[in-house]
Amino acid sequence: MRTCFGARVGVAMTSFLGETHMPLYADVVGHRLPEQRLRVTPRMALAYAAGIGDQSSVCADDMSPGFMAHPAFCVSPEWRLVLQNRMSGMGLTPDETMRGVHAGQNSRFFSPIRPGSDIRVTGEVVEVRGTKAGALVRTRLEIEEAETAEPLCSTLTTALYRGVAAVGAASAADSLEDVTETWSAPATSARVTLPLDRMFAHRYSECADIWNPIHTERRAALAAGLPDIIVHGTALWALAGRELIGAYTPDEPQRLKSLNGRFSAMVIAGEPITIVHGKGSSPGEVMFSVLNAAGEEAVSRGVAHIG
Length: 307
Prior knowledge:
Elements: E1 13-14, E2 20-21, E3 24-25, E4 32-39, H1 42-51, H2 57-60, H3 75-89, H4 94-98, E5 100-109, E6 118-130, E7 134-145, E8 151-162, E9 166-167, E10 170-171, E11 190-194, H5 200-208, H6 218-223, H7 233-248, E12 256-263, E13 273-279, E14 285-291, E15 297-306
Parallel strand pairs: 3-9
Antiparallel strand pairs: 1-2, 4-6, 5-8, 5-12, 6-7, 6-10, 7-8, 11-13, 12-15, 13-14, 14-15
Helix pairs in contact: 1-5
């Protein structure tokens, strides 16, 4: 585990934008993120449902007997921990932190997150390696009931820091599990096209409490080398989850046991998406992808499980 970032202050690189950056060292693997505790309120759960347009009674009505946060809500408390780690745990500069792009989300849901409950979020960096686009970092995140330690969600999240070099490569192999690596296309599939207005990314940012200016501010997006404001990968992932629940287990979101996908192409704010899905070869398995307006896979190799 890295103990002193200052010792490496003399080593830097120049990005494609001509700015000076520190490299990210692989010995950050094993770094444990500082625990965070959070009281989940009805306001938070309802806001998240509104952000992804989920109108199911279970997630959008606080008087429903089974009222719960949408399974994809897990990204909201996870983001708090990930952002703190970006700012202090890995020695990234503020500019490098802003270059972080979510590249994949593999989440398993063990039990619903209920409004009114206190949860604990913990994490550990499990992989760092360099790619042509920048430094790739994978982090294992766990959400559990604060008092009982009942597991609620486990996530393997992938981030890409564009234009930042990675020195070395390291991973905690026994902590890695990426079901998208064994993805196979379904024999038959259905598709649904969803219009997304220009301000969708703004609403999602505020309702999910996940903010990165590349998703809301055109100036920041252009400065990061993007063509325009882009929609959050987790928003596309959550919209896919919403549609899969509606198609395979209507108004029973608690039956969604996992939602996994890679964030492979951009969706420009204001452009429509198409969700393609079909049953996989295993019981309860659903394969899916999210296409952008150009027909590219914005979320690729998607795998979900309905229990």
